[in-house]
Amino acid sequence: MSKRALKMAETKRSIIAAARKSFAEYGYSDTSMDKLTADVNLTRGALYHNFGDKKGLFAAVVEEIDLEMVEKAKTKTEGCDNLWQGLMIEGQTYIESALDPEIQRIILLDGPAVLGDPSLWPSQNRCLLSTKQIVTQLIAEGTMKEVDPEAASMLINGAAMNASLWIASNPNPQKALPNALAAFNVILSGLKS
């Protein structure tokens, strides 16, 4: 990679890191692009060159956080005895992430308001594809009831996402979490053979 390409990648990482901090602390609407670029000693031109606009920058931050959430879930499922247990833990991990203040603010509260329906985000589509592959395997091995894999995947991911949204907007997220997890487990257990 050339020096110029390295510098551009470093600039992009710096902007995302500063934006992530600002979006988490102040929220999307109260994050100032002028302050953000000043904090990283760049011009607004560098921001717009790399991300197009504030919404593009926000989408890049959401993408980064979503990828980290996926990696966290994968790490938690590595020691699972079987695919079913892994599917349960993956969903539970996503729901538990609703207690993280950064995820609450950026992904669950501001994300839908700025980027629209989360089920249409590219990162969510990757999660859906992964869930569909697991569901297909679980049906093939007889662990899950015979259902349409795509429909089951949409319902599983939707249940985890909506549980997380509910927790994030709840006046008492700590109290809502165990209720959401219990309901999620009951819903998934209904799909088990």
UniProtKB/TrEMBL annotation:
The keyword Cell inner membrane does not apply. Transmembrane segments: none annotated. GO terms for molecular function: DNA binding. Keywords: DNA-binding, Transcription, Transcription regulation. Residues 9-69 form the HTH tetR-type domain. It holds the Pfam family TetR_C_41. Residues 32-51 bind DNA. PANTHER family: HTH-TYPE TRANSCRIPTIONAL REPRESSOR NEMR (PTHR47506:SF6), TRANSCRIPTIONAL REGULATORY PROTEIN (PTHR47506). This is Transcriptional regulator, TetR family.
